Amino acid sequence: MTTDLGDDPLALDRQVCFALAVAARSVIGLYRPLLEPMGLTHPQYLVMLALWEGEPRSVKDLSSTLQLESATLSPLLKRLEAADYITRRRSIDDERLLVVELTDAGRALRAEAEKIPYAVVERLALPVSDLEDLHTSLSRVIRAAATPATTAAAPATTEAAPA
Amino acid sequence: MTTDLGDDPLALDRQVCFALAVAARSVIGLYRPLLEPMGLTHPQYLVMLALWEGEPRSVKDLSSTLQLESATLSPLLKRLEAADYITRRRSIDDERLLVVELTDAGRALRAEAEKIPYAVVERLALPVSDLEDLHTSLSRVIRAAATPATTAAAPATTEAAPA
DNA sequence: CATTAATAGTTAGCACACTAATTAATCGCG
DNA sequence: CGCGATTAATTAGTGTGCTAACTATTAATG
């Protein structure tokens, strides 16, 4: 029927969701002092990473790449525009699309940003293999969470099995 | 000197921080429909987990247990009080402390909540060993991030080594 | 070709999560 | 005892991140 999760399934220190929340906040917190001099928050930094990989990009594109709702990106992009790192304009081909491009200042920022990954890895002082393992585990969970729920009542424990 | 992070250190799909952010949002998103009938958000659920493990607890105590600022907990606890799941009163011994306790409704909610971990694990449809691996990796990173920064300029790559 | 569907963004409203500033209570030490 | 330093919460302000409702544009269909 159901997986055995031990005597106390509600034990806080066993919840993956809790560890995920704390780890995400902790690690993102390490970026704060590094990003602050560039005037970026962590989500804004992620948008810049996406743009440095390819320009121009629509909000829809950024939304699916970063797994963020366009409702979240809308005000965020306006702040990046106010900081003069990006420009926002409607596409000529399809006026539903908002085209986001880097400004010269936004492009120039990349050189500064390249130091950040090294600074974070050094700060964590963990073997890079540990970080790679974590990345692998995280990718698995992301994929699992994105997989549509099986409405079935039947299958079960850890592996789906046809009837 | 510095660790080799490959040809593009800024590649989005290699950033652990990005994977962490997406995974946290994705997994917490799975809880939303499960918690919504109980009138809880995910952070509120974590507070309830902490209280089900031991009562009463001060805000300070919850803050260090959940790794959340008391400024975040303050309004959250007021909402839990408004939902009649907890009570808030000042300690008699030390009036600086706010003592948080469960109401009968809050205690009763535990029975409902016990189904949640099973529902999430089943929904993810991942081997429990994968989740345990992830939890181990996350704990490592949390500990590493919590370790005070070595102001040193010397050490380096992945392992601290005395001179 | 007109009407309806679908798609892309924006806005509003709620709930975190952080920093900084404030308030209130307690502690430490001469 | 008294009084400055600490400690515990709260408040204010900014920035995500979500859902739901809305606007504008484009595509699809009879």
Description:
The structure is a homodimer of 163-residue chains. Chain A has 163 residues and is mainly alpha-helical. Chain A has a single domain (12-135), classed as Orthogonal Bundle (Arc Repressor Mutant, subunit A). Chain A has 7 helices and 3 strands; from the N terminus they run H-H-E-H-H-E-E-H-H-H. Chain A has helices at 16-35, 42-53, 59-66, 70-82, 104-113, 115-124, 128-146; strands spanning 57-58, 86-90, 98-102. A 3-stranded antiparallel beta sheet of chain A has the order 1-3-2. In chain A, helix 1 crosses helix 6. The first copy, chain A, is globular. Chain A starts with 15 loop residues before the first helix and ends in a 17-residue tail after the last helix. Chains A and B meet through helix 1, helix 2, helix 6 and helix 7 of A and helix 1, helix 2, helix 6 and helix 7 of B. The first copy, chain A, binds a DNA duplex (30 and 30 nucleotides) through residues 25, 29, 32, 41-44, 58-60, 63, 68-76, 79, 94-98. Chains A, B: Keywords: Cytoplasm, DNA-binding, Transcription, Transcription regulation.
Keywords:
homodimer; 163 residues; mainly alpha; globular; DNA-binding
Topology (SSEs and partners):
Two copies of one chain form a homodimer.
Chain A: H1 16-35, H2 42-53, E1 57-58, H3 59-66, H4 70-82, E2 86-90, E3 98-102, H5 104-113, H6 115-124, H7 128-146
Antiparallel strand pairs in A: 1-3, 2-3
Helix pairs in contact in A: 1-6
The structure holds a DNA duplex (30 and 30 nucleotides).
